[in-house]
Structures are given as structure tokens and as C-alpha cells.
Design brief:
13 helices, homodimer, alpha/beta, elongated, 3-stranded mixed beta sheet, N-(1-d-carboxylethyl)-l-norvaline Dehydrogenase, domain 2
């Protein structure tokens, strides 16, 4: 019989991930705070709409949460844990602080269930295609239990260590992205002040050792001041701060990311929080009193 | 008739660049401080061996210098300029400080000649294949005069602005590479302290927005502590410092590169100057008291 899955959180990402699970033959019970979204989803993809998080968890072997932050995950677990059958596997795919994931993992264990943290990277189109990157933390056996579900939603699935390490890898990776992006922003602004041809600079960087995905994705938006949000600056800053908190707790310093975080934080002070994080170039422009 | 070219400096890069010019049909007169290298080169590729830099410049329409640093370029120009025919084009393809390139350009102009700075990126195999990246600074007409030669040596030729801007683009691009590399080093070391699986971390970064050429080229050497020099740490630091000097002179601050420079400089103090610049990971390890 198909594995019964409770899926909680049918937002932009979650609705697409759940659809891939349904297509792969999992038996879904879905829950969403705004019930209309769940009804619409079930009309399209089948499955049952749950009345409450507890209802979504009651008959599930695996419960997936895909919501906005740690407090939301915790509130859902408050409701779902008492209803779940013993040994249910809770998989949180939201992006939350690694320390929160560990705390929630302990709580799920105390309730007699299992927990895996499994945040994703990749935007809506990759959620749609089932080609997300999924990085997970948890016991080997629990990750293996979740793997068939992960493989229906993602292309790359990596097990990074015990509970919390999926989140740790995600925020560390995002800290590198954010720092590479801030470095690029500063190089463009410095180049402008020096009067070099910025198209030439970008072309040279793209064809040499300075190349990066950030250069590929963000150089043009920076030069054109197009900050329509693909990933908001305030959300990127949140991830970098999680990465710095984790590093600190492990007794490690990440000075380049700490400096980058400061620049993004200045961006918040300049009202750029809802813009794409490429808007960190505005901070570099302000510091150097020049516009791209 | 084929353009007569004086080529000065037949080192690892220069000998391969000159060979591509000879293959493309330019008429070469070559000079090298160690004459045996020039004799061996001419035996293989044809052309005439000059006795002195002046001899290499005397009948040339274009004189190319490809040596180690600014003082060497200056010493060669001291000898070559008086012998050159009026209007000779001097193209310096060495990597030197942008400010030095500007100063030398003025000096060449006072002698009645033209100057283009045209540093390259790409290692010996790309010099061999004629697929270097060449970034040049100079007057449009002078760059156009040099273009047929550049096209015999490089795949990507970009004109970045007036004299000095080829060097400015090169060191700015290298400052981005160095900063991305130091960011990667710190992320790996922080990840080790946190106990995450570093192969998982590298795989996630390589498949997402944290990807970069530095990640591709330097993550493995860092994890394996393989610092056999492809580009020495002290040379990378020199380029980053040139980039910071240029930025300062233009009234601009590049804080992330300044912090990266500090880490590479600590590397010098730890005896890593002759290692590959990936050895900056040793500094990150020392700061965080952990080994990869």
C-alpha cells in the first residue's frame, strides 16, 4: 500500500512539492491554514483535505511541514504530535534556525516520534519540476525512510549529519552566496569609481576565476538597478545571521560573512529589506558615493 | 608585408604567446635576458634573436613586453625606447600596478610612441592554445592596432578604458577571486567545527547559488591540504593589494577585499607565501583552532 503522507503548508513551494508526491503515488492528506488553498489543491491533485493539523497527522506514516519559520513549525507540532500514531516520522522542510530544528527534534523524540530537518534550495520552478536540492539532518534510518519522498521532490538529496545539520548546511551555503554577492557588488562600485568599463569587468570575471553563480544571476540586476525580489534581502540576512549564530555556538568565527551581514543589515536600515538581496549594491554605492 | 614585432620576455607565458604570433605569420624579433631561451625558442619557431632590448625594438612596429613586474618593464623601456622608430606601439602584457602602467604610458608618449597595457589571465595551457583572456587599456586606435596580435594570443579581448584600465580590471577581478576563495575557506572550516558533512556542504554549494569557479577549483585542494602552487599566495596578495591601492586612489573602499587581504597577509606570516593561494584555508583553520 502507498505510504500515507500528511502534508502541512501548501504555499508557493509546498503546493508544488505535494503535487510531486501525489504524482509519485503517495497517499496525501493536506492541511493549509487558509482552507481554500487546500481545497483547490485537492481538486487538482486528489488527496484528502484535513480539518486540522492533528487530522493531517492522525493516519500518516510521514508528516511533512513546509511553512515560514520556526514558531510556525512549533505551533503545528503542538497540534499534530498528540494525534500522531507512535513512531510517525516528522519531516520539516521549512528553513528555520539549526538550533530550533535540534530543539524541535528533541521534542518530537520525547513524544515517541522521529524527526528529520530537510530544508530545500531552488525556487518555485524547481519545486514544480521536482528538481530541488534537499539537505537533511537526522538519524540514518529516518533519512532512509524519508528518501523515497525526497526523491519525488528533489534531484539532489544530501544527508549532512544529525538533526539540525540540514539547516546548518543550508544557512552556511547561503552565507557564502550572500558574501559572494556583496563582494561582487563592491567590485562593481569600485570599478565605477575607477572609471573602468563595467561590461568589460563583468565579461572578464565571467570568463575567469572570479566567476560565480552570483555573478551570473546578480551582475545585470545590479547594473540595471532591477531589484524585483526573487529572494528578499531581509530573508537572506536572516539566513546569514543563522549561519553566524551557529558558527558562534560552535566556537567558530566567519569574519567575511559577518562583514557581509553588516552590509545587508545597513540595507535594511535603508529600506531595502523587501527588495531582492542584490540591492546590497545600493549600500556599496552609498558607501562609495557613486551610482552604477 | 607582415607586421614586425619585437617580443621581450620568453618565460612560461611569453614563449607560448610569441609562438602563437609566429604561427599567425607575424615577423618576430625576440629578446630574453637569458639568451639561451631565446636561441632555443627561435630554433623551434623561427624569427631573429635580438642582442639587446634596443635591438628588439629597432625595426619593430609593435614591441611586446611580458615580464615579471613594473620595475622590469621600466628597465626594458629605458633600453628600448631610444632605439624605436617614432610611433612604435609598446604593448605591456605583464601584470603590474595600474598606477605604474599609467606612469609608463606617459613616459612612452613623451618619447613619441604609443602604449597599451594588456595583462592576461589564463595559465600556460591557455597561453599555448591562444585562448587567453586579454584585458587592455589605451586609446581606441592603439588597441585596434594591437588587436590582430591579441587575437592570435587570446580568445577574449576586452577594452576596459584608457591606459591602466586593463590592469585595473585584472586586479579587481583577482580581488573578487581572492575574496570568494577566502569565503569558501572560512565556510569549510566553520562547517568542520559545526560537525557538518563537508562533502555534503560542497555538493550543495556546487549545485546552488554558492557555486563559483573558486569552489570548483579550490574546495578539493583545501580539503586535501594540497597547496602545490598554481598561483602563489604571495602573488595573489600582491594583486589584491594593487586593487585596494587603486580603489583608495579613486576614493573608494572595498571592505570585503580588504579583510580578505588581511587573511592572505597572515598567510605570509605563517610561511605560506610560496604555496597556492588556496592555503588561505590554513589561516581560517588557525583562527578557528580546527583542521580540515
Amino acid at each position: 500500500m502507498a505510504t500515507a503522507v500528511g502534508f502541512i503548508g501548501l504555499g508557493i513551494m509546498g503546493s508544488r512539492q505535494a503535487a510531486n508526491l501525489a504524482r509519485a503515488g503517495f497517499e496525501l492528506t493536506v492541511f493549509n491554514r487558509t482552507r481554500e488553498r487546500a481545497e483547490a489543491w485537492a481538486a487538482e491533485h486528489g488527496g484528502r483535505v484535513a480539518d486540522t493539523p492533528a487530522d493531517a497527522a492522525r493516519d500518516a506514516e510521514v508528516v511533512i511541514t513546509m511553512v515560514v519559520d520556526g514558531p510556525q513549525v512549533e505551533a503545528l507540532l503542538d497540534e499534530a504530535l498528540p494525534a500522531a500514531r507512535p513512531g510517525t516520522l516528522f519531516v520539516d522542510m521549512s528553513t528555520i534556525a539549526p538550533a530550533d530544528a535540534r530543539r524541535l527534534g528533541e521534542r518530537v523524540a520525547r513524544s515517541g516520534h522521529a524527526f528529520v530537518d530537510a530544508p530545500v534550495t531552488g525556487s518555485a520552478p524547481r519545486a514544480q519540476d521536482g528538481t530541488l536540492t534537499i539537505m537533511c539532518g537526522g538519524a540514518e534510518a529516518d533519512v532512509e525512510r524519508a528518501r523515497p519522498l525526497f526523491e519525488a521532490m528533489g534531484r539532489l538529496v544530501v544527508h549532512a549529519g544529525p538533526i539540525g545539520q540540514g539547516q546548518a548546511v543550508k544557512v552556511l551555503s547561503n552565507a557564502v552566496s550572500a558574501t559572494n554577492c556583496a563582494t561582487l557588488a563592491q567590485a562593481l562600485v569600485v570599478g565605477r569609481r575607477e572609471g573602468v568599463d563595467l561590461d568589460a569587468l563583468v565579461e572578464v570575471m565571467a570568463n575567469g576565476s572570479a566567476a560565480s553563480t552570483m555573478l551570473e544571476l546578480k551582475a545585470r540586476p545590479m547594473l540595471e538597478h532591477d531589484f524585483a525580489p526573487l529572494f528578499k534581502l531581509e530573508h537572506m540576512l536572516k539566513d546569514v545571521r543563522h549561519a553566524l549564530d551557529e558558527a558562534r555556538a560552535a566556537g567558530a568565527v566567519f569574519p567575511l560573512a559577518a562583514l557581509a551581514a553588516e552590509l545587508y543589515a545597513v540595507g535594511i536600515g535603508r529600506g531595502l529589506g523587501d527588495e531582492d538581496f542584490a540591492a546590497v549594491v545600493r549600500v556599496a554605492e552609498a558607501i562609495n558615493d557613486v551610482s552604477l
